[in-house]
């Protein structure tokens, strides 16, 4: 295919992916009451499952029970005429993106599969399942771990008793959406490493040699996306470090596969 043909395929990939997202958004719009009242505003409830879990852990180790609050000291409000309408539309589109991820990944696979070997193309279903699973695990981790940590920390920050926390609905929902989706994308690290290894851009030796720099980078990322306390950063860093170590073994597997292919091709050439 020519360069323009590739661009045409990419254009249709984006068109079909957009249709999937809008379709997922339509489904989300039908369940908007559940999405807002149970999912979006769930972390605002002091009885949210994450707060209960951290409260029990803090009490067990005799730490400060900052997660055992009776209520979170802030109110959510709308400041513009079309604010709530815009929130409904964009939240449904974001939910539609999450729902459509398996279909989008399928489109991505179809786009890159012509550049793969025949024995690699048979892993299409595995790619879709594993990539989708990692993304959804990341979204759940972001929603149940990072989002409550951020909301609890930021809600209890107060420069003075005179200042009341009246949070704009866009600010609150943006935190929930951005954190959850960002974690979902970060959890795709093993898949990214797989394709970089297939293209010989990354090797397991490279990942091992730069592990110490990767740890520093992971800690920086954890510090950016979490409240500024050590416990939150550790909670976020652990799964990212595990994913990095898994990525090393994935790269090692791919490298071994590439070497076997090169050896097979060499033997064929010699026999001819």
TrEMBL record:
Cellular compartment(s): Cell membrane; Membrane
GO terms (BP aspect): intracellular protein transmembrane transport; protein transport by the Tat complex
Record keyword Transmembrane present: yes
Transmembrane stretches, start-end: 12-31, 87-106, 126-146, 179-198, 210-228
Signal sequence extent: none
Membrane topology note: Multi-pass membrane protein
Pfam families from the UniProt entry: TatC
NCBIfam families given in the database record: tatC
Subunit description: Forms a complex with TatA.
Function: Part of the twin-arginine translocation (Tat) system that transports large folded proteins containing a characteristic twin-arginine motif in their signal peptide across membranes.
Name used for this protein in its record: Sec-independent protein translocase protein TatC
Organism: Myroides albus
């Amino acid at each position: 295919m020519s360069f323009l043909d590739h661009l045409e395929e990419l254009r249709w990939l984006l068109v079909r992916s957009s249709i999937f997202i809008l379709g997922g958004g339509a489904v989300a719009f039908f369940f908007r009451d559940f999405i807002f009242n149970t999912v979006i505003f769930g972390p605002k409830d002091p009885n949210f499952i994450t707060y209960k879990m951290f409260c029990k852990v803090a009490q067990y180790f005799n730490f400060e029970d900052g997660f055992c609050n009776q209520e979170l000291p802030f109110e959510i409000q709308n400041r513009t005429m079309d604010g709530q309408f815009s929130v409904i539309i964009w939240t449904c589109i974001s939910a539609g993106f999450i729902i459509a991820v398996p279909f989008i990944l399928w489109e991505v696979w179809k786009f890159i599969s012509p550049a793969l070997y025949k024995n690699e193309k048979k892993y299409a279903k595995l790619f879709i399942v594993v990539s989708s699973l990692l993304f959804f695990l990341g979204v759940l981790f972001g929603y149940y771990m990072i989002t409550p940590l951020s909301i609890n920390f930021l809600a209890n920050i107060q420069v003075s008793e005179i200042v009341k926390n009246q949070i704009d609905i866009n600010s609150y929902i943006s935190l929930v959406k951005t954190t959850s989706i960002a974690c979902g994308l970060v959890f795709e690290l093993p898949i990214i490493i797989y394709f970089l290894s297939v293209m010989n851009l990354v090797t397991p030796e490279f990942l091992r040699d730069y592990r110490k720099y990767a740890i520093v980078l992971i800690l920086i990322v954890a510090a950016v996306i979490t409240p500024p306390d050590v416990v939150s950063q550790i909670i976020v860093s652990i799964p990212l470090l595990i994913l990095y170590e898994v990525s090393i073994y994935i790269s090692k597997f791919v490298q071994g596969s590439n070497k076997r292919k090169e050896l097979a091709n060499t033997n064929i050439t010699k026999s001819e």
